Amino acid sequence: KEIIIATKNPGKAREFKRLFDDQEIELKTLLDFPNFPEIRETGKTFQENATIKAHAVMDQFNLPVIADDSGLKVDALYGQPGVHSARYAGDHNDAANNAKLLSELGGVPLEKRTAQFVSTLVFANPKNDQDLVVEGSVNGLIATLPQGDDGFGYDPLFYVPELDKTMAQITLDQKNQISHRGNAIKKLEKLWQDWIIW
Ligand code: ITT
């Protein structure tokens, strides 16, 4: 039995592989298919974009597919970068995105730098008429300086007050326990085996 995770993002791929390590399922990602064409994410919501990705990949492989569309919502920026998180500063460049976020928040005090990571997962399967959709989130604060080397994307700036650490200062397993994606995957794990028609 095989499931494809419709992501080219190595950070996401690592988190999925760690959480979804059920021995009887072979998990692949788009990193295993480097020639898979770019998917245009034209949706206005995480769910629309995750649906676009899941179905583009399912149509190609005729296999069950999970897509994650995720991002960072910053309250002081009225929810931005949101669905534009990957390309906030232009190209998909984590360092440039983090620099832009810090500059947009220049002068905003820490207590007003509240933010949320959100992950919407869409599970599509050729034999199921309807997709399975779940969402996970985690609250934090945008730090004034990046800290930590683990994770990806905005993790060095996403400070979790309960841990007194950023998402880039904790292990992959710790991140999976508390993160938006970890929370969404845990919801999916409770549902998908009863839903899927093999
Ligand atoms: P795929 O579409 O191939 O999955 P992507 O990185 O383009 O990869 P998204 O369109 O969902 O995926 O963009 C999500 C962006 O949000 C991601 O590139 C990061 O900038 C940010 N992000 C999402 N989850 C994150 C996390 O766990 N840690 C840090 N940043 C995250």
- Number of beta-strand segments: 7
- Mind summarizing the main beta sheet? 7 strands, mixed
Briefly, what CATH class? Alpha Beta
Strand residue content:
15-25%
Number of helices: 5
How would you characterize this protein structure?
The chain has 198 residues and is α/β, with parallel strands linked by helices. The chain has one domain: Maf protein. The chain is built from five helices and seven strands, in the order E-H-E-H-E-H-E-E-E-E-H-H. It has a seven-stranded mixed sheet with strand order 2-1-3-4-5-6-7. The mean pLDDT is 96. The site of inosine 5'-triphosphate has 23 residues, from strand 3.
Map the helices and strands:
Layout: E1 2-5, H1 10-19, E2 26-29, H2 46-61, E3 65-74, H3 94-104, E4 114-124, E5 132-142, E6 158-160, E7 165-166, H4 172-178, H5 180-195
Parallel strand pairs: 1-2, 1-3
Antiparallel strand pairs: 3-4, 4-5, 5-6, 6-7
Helix pairs in contact: 1-5, 4-5
Bound molecules: inosine 5'-triphosphate.
Quick gist of this model?
Its cofactor is Mg(2+). 30% of the residues lie in helices and 23% in strands.
